[in-house]
Amino acid sequence: MNKRMCAGIMALMAAVSLLSGCAGSTAVNAEGKNDASSGVTEDAQPTPEQDESSSLLSPLLEDGSSQQPDEVVVNEEVKKAVETRSAEYYNVEGWYGFTVSDFDMVYSNEELKNCFDRLQTICDESYFPLGFCYKNIETGASIGYHQYNTFMTCSTIKAPLVKSLLAKDIDLDTVISLNEKWPGDDGTLSAMEYGREFTAKELIEYTILESDNTAYQLLCRNFGTDAFNNRQYELGANFYLGYNGEWIFTYCTPEDMAKDYVDIYEFAEENEQGKWLIDLMCNAKLNIQIGKALGGKYDVAQKYGTDYLESAFSDCAIVYADSPFVLCIYTEQTPETDESCQVFKDIALVCDDINSLIAAEPTEEETSHEAENETQAENNA
Predict the structure, then answer these.
(1) Predicted structure pTM score
(2) What architecture (CATH level 2) is domain 75-359?
């Protein structure tokens, strides 16, 4: 009887100990989360230097919301495949509704096939007109879906236009008077009085950060679009703007617009004003598409486009991954809803996984070294 009582007491004590341990663990985790939350709050406080900024658009830059992402979905299988770093020739077979080119070497054919299957599902489930072009800047690997169909450029054209002006080396201190407004515009400048003056630099900031149509129109009217149109001819992109600003929006294909965003990337690699443009694009006020999905992993320089009357919704981005890529997506659906934003985020996530699986062709030096090692191994045998 005493032995049974002792055994019962010991079991009871073990259960109490176990319950105490669980409660203690929970308390520690909760305390850790509270510390983390308070730390973020403190970091978010503006510094005196930020408060003293002289930029008209400093509130936009201080907002901090532009690169706040959704929870980034990491494909662990893809990550595992890349970590092995054993490149193989691309030989994925199967029918897909999108085109694939220049995928010469990859880290895993199996995982790449899985990514392509996911991408095909996204395309199949899109009940609205959709076209996109993905291009790896370093290797040239590309994917296109309805990439030769035409869509309204909307505001995605503003970043290439600004790039053309910066490449033309316009005087950013040029003073421009507000003497016209874009019809129906509800942007910041449209609410200001006629005659107010802005520098070209300020108009560029409004054009990229706020996507202000009136600011964009003033840039086109005062500096012209000849530099932009000439650059399109050089790039082999088949869309243009009115030379005297007769029309400042047009139609394009995702394939052609991708050429412009690769051009912006290359310009920024060697030009300080190009770097400034990239910085503006990374801090654009509305960031609910590609940058929303990938902004937690990389810098994402993007420019969205919207036209409610035409149900046009688009986004073009330069993603500064380990191997940078450009992604231009055009759709015809109700703009700026959770549902219409989802396809952009879905495509961005799968393209990021695909991008991580691309292996560059071995250099001549690496090939020569590998051949020497094989010869030496045969001699030793």
Answers:
(1) 0.77
(2) 3-Layer(aba) Sandwich (3.40)
